[in-house]
Structures are given as C-alpha cells and as structure tokens.
Amino acid sequence: MISIVEVQETNKMIREMNLDVRTITMGISLMDCAHTDMRVFNQNVYDKITRSAEKLVKTGEDLERQFGVPIVNKRISVTPISIAAGAVHTDTYVPVAEVLDKAAKEVGVNFIGGFSALVQKGCTKGDRILIDSIPEALAVTERVCSSVNVGSSRSGINMDAVKLMGDIILQTAERTKERDSIGCAKLVVFCNAVEDNPFMAGAFHGVGERECVINVGVSGPGVIKRALEEVKGHDFETLCETIKRTAFKVTRVGQLVAQEASKRLGVPFGIIDLSLAPTPLIGDSIAEIFQVMGLEEAGAPGTTAALAILNDNVKKGGVMASSYVGGLSGAFIPVSEDHGMIQAVQRGALTLEKLEAMTCVCSVGLDMIAIPGSTSKETIAGIIADEAAIGMVNNKTTAVRVIPVIGKEVGEMVEFGGLLGYAPVMAVNKFDCSGFVNRGGRIPAPIHSFKN
Predict the structure, then answer these.
(1) In this structure, what CATH number is given to the domain that contains residue 297?
(2) Residues 6+ apart with CB under 8 A from 16
(3) Quick one: which of 385, 377, 336 has its CA closest to 356?
(4) Class of residue 8 by CB neighbours under 10 A (exposed 0-12, middle 13-18, buried 19+)
(5) pLDDT given at position 102
C-alpha cells in the first residue's frame, strides 16, 4: 500500500527535482517478418510495428495525465536488422531503415532502435550489409538509431569490426555534416551489449526476448542531488544509504508506470532500467551530484570514486523496488546531455582520458562526446578498442558514442538540440595508433571468461 506521505514525496520530486519516466520502450520481434523479397519484408516490418505499437504513445500520454508523472519519450526497439533481414536478397538495408523511420513516424514515437549488428566474433553477410548501410541510413532518416556490438567478455574483441566502425563513424559524420554530424549521435558501438536496454541510441530487441515487451527507463539525477544536499558533511555510510533509499523511491515510480502500461497495452512487462540519465537542464546533472558530494568539478581527483559510489548504490536501491531490474541501470555520463559535464569540460577539469577512467565504474561509456572532425578513423577505432577492453575485462557493458564534427576543432561549440543538448569539441590524443588498429583479427577473451 502506498501512503499519502509517499504520494506527496513523489509529487515534490516531479515538481522540484526533475523526476521523470525517461522512456517507455516497446520491444518488438521482427523474426516472423523474414522474407527474401525486400518489398515483402519491408511491408511485413511496417505492418508488425504499426500494429503492435498503435496505442503506445496514447497510452503513455494517458498515464502521464493519470499519475502526473512526465513520460519524456515513447520509443520502439526491434530485432537487430542484420538478423531479421538476413534472408533478403539485397546489397543495402537503407530501404529497411526508411521503413523503420516511416513506421516510427506513423505511431508517433521519438526514436526506433535496432538498426543493429552483433559482430563480437565475426560478421555474417547480413552484418556486413548492415554496417555498410549505416552512414546513408542515418543520413536519410530522422528517428532510426543504430548500434554495433564489437566485443564481449565471452568472445573477446573483433578488431576487424572495431577498425571498420572507426571508418563508418567518420562516414556518418561526413554524410550529416550540414547538421553538425548529428548522424553520429544516433550510432553506438558496444562491448557486452544487453538485449533489454530501453535507452537510445543503443536499444534493440534481443533474440532471447519475448515476442513483444514493455521496458521502462526511469531517471532522477535531480532527486538524488536534492537528497544528498540534506546530508552534506555526513560520512560515506550515510551518503550511500541516502542514495539507496532515494533510488528505491524513484524506481517505484517506474514500476507503477510499467505495470499499468503493460496491462493497458496487453503486452508483458519486461524490465525497469533505473539509469541516472541527465538532461541539459540545470539541476538535472550527474556532475552536480559530484559537486554535492564534495568535488569542485567533475573530473577533480575523487571523481571516479564518487561515480562508483553513485552507480553501485543506485543499483542496490533500485533492485529492491522492482520485480525485474535490467537494461543498463546505474549512472550515465553523456557530456552533451549534462550541463555540469559541459561546464567541467569548458573549465578544463574534465578530459577524454578522465572520462575513460570513469567509464570503468559507470553504466555505459564514452557517450555523446564531440571531437574534432579532423580526427582519423584509426584514432576513433583506438578509442573504441580501449572502451571495449574495459568492458571485456570488467565483464560490464561499455560503449562509444563520439561525434567527429566535420569542420569544427577543439573548443568550438556544437548544438544538437532537445535532449541531445550541446557540447564543446574535446581534444583527442594526437599520437598515432594505426599500427595497432591495422593488425586485424580478434583479441581473445580474458581468462575469467571460462566459467563453465
């Protein structure tokens, strides 16, 4: 039973602390859409998505009104297209991306994820077609998001795919250079990608999932920040307990919305992803949480420890509040989407190297980082390899979403708009790594992968 005090607390979190349900994401299997003819396959995909998600946006809006909880995004994830379209006789999946975009617009969702490939051990024909199609697909669509998984703790790192993705990211940047290379903001390279992630741009509906599910992502950096302000100066035990208790309350909101959405749509509830995903709004920032913890700026000595505390205790609190916690769950550190992170970069407190260190203990990795458009494809591949190695060795999800902004250099600002925010172009290490990247082949999995 929810008490009146809990209701009042929740209302205060929404009004004053930027608490929101960041996304309701419907995962849809496209496995039964398979066909050798592109036109038939595309029609099957369009019909399946528009039929399954017909009431998704309206249901989200109805729940917003009923519970008074902002539901910022309504989204769809689908089976990785390299798998679902594997039987199609074609040399490009761009027409599939266009159909995904059309279906997303028809049902009114913000983004649709799943223009994806899983190539941690190697590429199939469909994987290679998918990857080669990414630059054009992201240039000609508005709502399609793409992801490629290049490594795992079980399989190692596919360095051929890492090298290829360095080139694909630059091609995508070039194809969308008139819009500050925004295509790259919809492209993520993963190690240890999860099958039930409701957040974009990395969401896809895994092959181990049900036919259709509802996954909900809840976000509340502002709520955590306000709670920690009330225990300023207290010891670390108090700090951790405060984060856990607050994360529990935030997750309960998501659980309520997820269960009700599942019932109204007649679709099984999948997971709650409690990820502290910031926005460009002041007061809704992971970096500002660090400052409340006692750091002058994000990037100061102690930042990685502070992030580890935050990430771990968010998970501990959240897991007790929902029957199924999954996705990524923890703390995101996207630069362009976090007012405090942007400020820390501008003041020289936060560098790419420090961000890489922080990814060892956060939920994802190097996220929404603008880099010079002159950065080489080998350097981008090296950045991907570093992040994949962190994920592989630590048995966690890591990712790279960097945006080489064509025509801009270090210090210039880039405006992406909306939740994607804005960012200063960050400096990248200029020393050459091409001899390493060009070796090719696969980096074997670490010894602790053999757990059978």
Answers:
(1) 3.20.70.20
(2) 226
(3) 385
(4) exposed
(5) 97
Q: How far is CA 267 from the centre of its chain?
A: 23
Residue range(s) defining the domain that contains residue 341: 220-233+275-440
Strands 366-372 and 112-118: unpaired
**Strands 398-405, 187-191: pairing kind:** antiparallel
- In angstroms, rounded to a whole number, what is the distance separating the alpha carbons of residues 426 and 404? 10
On whether residue 88 sits in a domain, the answer given is no
Would you say residue 85 lies in a domain?
A: no
> Quick check: is 26 in a domain?
no
Q: How far is residue 331's CA from residue 308's CA, in Å, rounded to a whole number? A: 9
Q: Which long-range contacts (CB under 8 A, 24 or more apart) does 87-93 make?
A: 87/34, 87/35, 87/36, 87/41, 88/35, 88/36, 88/37, 88/38, 88/41, 89/36, 89/37, 89/38, 90/38, 90/129, 91/129, 92/129, 92/132, 92/133, 92/136, 93/129, 93/130, 93/133, 93/137
Whether residue 330 is contained in a domain is answered as yes
Q: What's this model's pTM, rounded to 2 decimal places?
A: 0.91
Model confidence pLDDT, tens digit, residues 9-29: 655 555 555 577 788 999 999
How many domains are contained in the chain? Answer: 1
The answer, yes or no, to whether residue 2 has pLDDT greater than 50, is: no
What are the pLDDT digits (tens) for 32-66?
999 999 999 999 999 999 999 999 999 988 988 88
